[in-house]
Design brief:
The complex is a heterodimer of chains A (220) and B (350). Chain A is an all-alpha fold. Helices cover 77% and strands 0% of the residues of chain A. Chain A has helices spanning 3-29, 33-54, 57-81, 86-91, 93-119, 126-140, 147-158, 160-181, 188-191, 195-200, 203-206. The mean pLDDT of chain A is 80. Chain B has twelve helices and no strands. Chain B is mainly α and 350 residues long. The model of chain B has no long low-confidence stretch (mean pLDDT 85). Chain B has helices at residues 2-7, 12-49, 65-75, 86-102, 121-142, 146-177, 182-188, 207-220, 232-235, 245-270, 290-311, 317-345. The radius of gyration of chain B is 21 Å and the shape is globular. Classes of the chains: A mainly alpha (220), B mainly alpha (350). The interface between A and B is medium-sized, with 26 and 29 residues.
């Protein structure tokens, strides 16, 4: 252990970090949007690897389950069905370039300001101090306390109301999306399946036994 | 196993490395053999239910049929359609196959016999199984062909739908077991009902969840009656239509490895994994090694899978979606409330 393990950790950190950045660059460089989404998935995956290195295995698994397993599948689903004319997309590049540059600049300055402010000491409100105290309590629990238990202790005891509020906001967003996109069709009878009616249906309702004599036809 | 290699005089790092690699080989190689044999079993069971003989030519009782098939596809030419997206077309089956093998890392074959005994074992299984959809979706898109594309669309929607209810079912199991570690979940099932029966499925509150889990695992692995992704009457062979040779075989192997994995999860989460069904130490079965019990349970579940495939007609697509979203999702959510309420009421959490 000791020195060797540290070297291995360092090497794997650089591997994951390099892969995250490289695939993030490929997301915007790829010509095909489907390839972009696949590079994005690779970036998520390597970010999960970084989380494992940090010892945050719960976050890593959630990252894979939620982002790779659900969100990116939906992305892929939509992008695959789009019929995008790539030449047309490229044509707007020069026109939109100054705007993109501006946004990138603002983001960079914000990051920089944030970093400087953090180095200068940062804001320490009461709740943050309390959180640090709670984290200390978790540390006191020792290495035996798993990731999930630590999260549970924070989410369901200290930050219960904030956590529930976040859940409520998501619920409202979901209901809002359904309400906005749901429309009642005038021919609802025809377009919707009535499972009860389908299950009640018996062979007698759909078929008729006829035994015509030779030379006779059947009137339907 | 690390300590065994250390006792041979290796330093710790090398012992750990050798132990892990041999552990991986000990799981992956028998798994490949099991997949080959389980395909034979599937065909035999299916044939028996249709009053046919099934494979009976290659080897005694046709036992070597899968190996003959494997050799055949190995010697065939790999055809890449000219309109296909070549790189992704070739990567897709590799993804399916790799992902099907990865999940086995956390499956406990005995009290000590786990490759990776991690705290978040069940979440790892969920994460890996949610990756399985990519092999199918990428194949459907990269083939640049109509039927595979339809199949990819279906697969994406189907797997996401059923993962939601599987998640809620697993939450109930985890609540009762108090851990995400698969070995701890197995241990929690010892003497679960009256101190006599090992397995969550014998608990009346969890039994309906097991039924839902079994049906969801059929849907998750796209087995009949939920095999809409490769419905041969509508989509030729679904996402595999353009595949040939080894890339086709990788789908075959990956699919059956996934089916075996789902059978194993049924056994581990609801039927006590490597524990004997009865927790009575004077019964002769009590001292049979755990992995034999686990394999027996996997085999029983696989028989159920084959049985369903041989007898149940295919679902319509809207029925599949209705079952997932309108029946299983509310029911499993209700059971999360019921189970957690019961556990709180009986003071399970102390």
């Amino acid at each position: 252990m000791g020195e060797d393990a540290f070297v291995i950790q360092l090497l794997s950190f650089y591997l994951f970090a390099f892969m995250v950045i490289a695939s993030a660059v490929m997301v915007i460089m790829a010509r095909n949007p489907v390839h972009s989404v696949l590079w994005l998935i690779l970036a998520f995956f390597n970010a999960a690897g970084l989380m494992v290195l940090l010892g945050a295995e719960f976050i890593a698994m959630l990252l894979v389950i939620v982002y790779v397993g659900a969100v990116a599948v939906l992305f892929l689903f939509v992008v695959m069905m789009l019929d995008i004319d790539f030449a047309e997309l490229r044509a707007g590049f020069v026109r939109n370039f100054p705007l993109g540059l501006l946004v990138a600049l603002i983001l960079f300055v914000e990051l920089f300001v944030g970093l400087v402010a953090y180095n200068a000491g940062g804001l320490v409100p009461d709740s943050a101090a309390a959180a640090a105290q709670a984290a200390g309590a978790i540390d006191a629990g020792g290495a035996s306390m798993s990731n999930i238990e630590a999260f549970g202790a924070l989410f369901y005891e200290r930050y219960l109301f904030l956590f529930e509020a976040a859940g409520l906001i998501l619920l409202v967003a979901m209901i809002g999306a359904i309400v906005l996109t749901h429309r009642r069709r005038p021919d609802a009878q025809r377009s919707q399946q009535d499972i009860g009616r389908q299950n009640r249906r018996r062979p007698g309702d759909a078929t008729v036994m006829k035994q015509p004599k030779v030379g006779e036809g059947v009137a339907l | 196993m690390t300590s065994f290699f250390q006792s041979l005089g290796m330093p710790y790092e090398w012992a750990w490395f050798t132990a892990t690699v041999s552990g991986i080989l000990l799981i992956a190689l028998p798994l490949m053999l099991a997949v080959a044999m389980i395909i034979y079993v599937d065909r035999k069971v299916w044939a028996a239910m249709a009053l046919r003989r099934g494979p009976n030519v290659v080897g005694p009782w046709g036992l070597l049929q899968s190996f003959a098939d494997g050799l055949k596809v190995f010697l065939q030419e790999t055809i890449v359609p000219s309109a296909a997206n070549k790189g992704l077309f070739l990567i897709a089956p590799i993804i399916t196959f790799t992902v099907a093998l990865m999940a086995w890392a956390v499956i406990p074959f005995g009290p000590e016999a786990v490759l990776a005994d991690i705290n978040v074992g069940l979440l790892y299984v969920l994460a890996i199984s949610s990756l399985g959809v990519y092999g199918v979706v990428i194949a459907g898109w990269a083939s640049n062909s109509k039927y595979p594309f339809f199949s990819a669309m279906r697969a994406a929607a189907q797997m996401i739908s059923y993962e939601v209810s599987i998640g809620f079912i697993l939450i109930c199991v985890v609540l009762w077991a108090g851990s995400f570690n698969l070995n701890a979940i197995v241990a929690a099932q010892q003497g679960h009902v009256f101190g006599l029966l090992n397995g969550f499925a014998f608990n009346p509150l969890l039994f309906p969840l097991w039924v839902m889990f079994l049906i969801s695992s059929l849907a998750e692995t796209a087995r009949a009656p939920f095999d809409l992704t490769e419905a041969e009457s509508e989509l030729v062979a679904g996402y595999q239509t353009e595949y040939s040779s080894m890339s086709f075989a990788l789908y075959w192997l990956g699919e059956y490895a996934n089916v075996l994995l789902m059978c194993t999860l049924n056994a581990v989460l609801f039927f006590g994994g490597w524990l004997p069904p009865l927790d009575v130490d004077w019964l002769p079965g009590y001292y049979i090694p755990g992995w034999i019990w686990l394999f027996g349970k996997i085999f029983v579940f696989f028989f159920v899978f084959s049985w369903v495939k041989a007898t149940v007609p295919r679902y319509r697509y809207d029925q599949l979606m209705r079952l997932g979203w309108k029946v299983f999702l509310p029911l499993s959510l209700l059971f999360v409330v019921l189970v957690s309420g019961w556990l709180m009421w009986t003071g399970h959490f102390g």
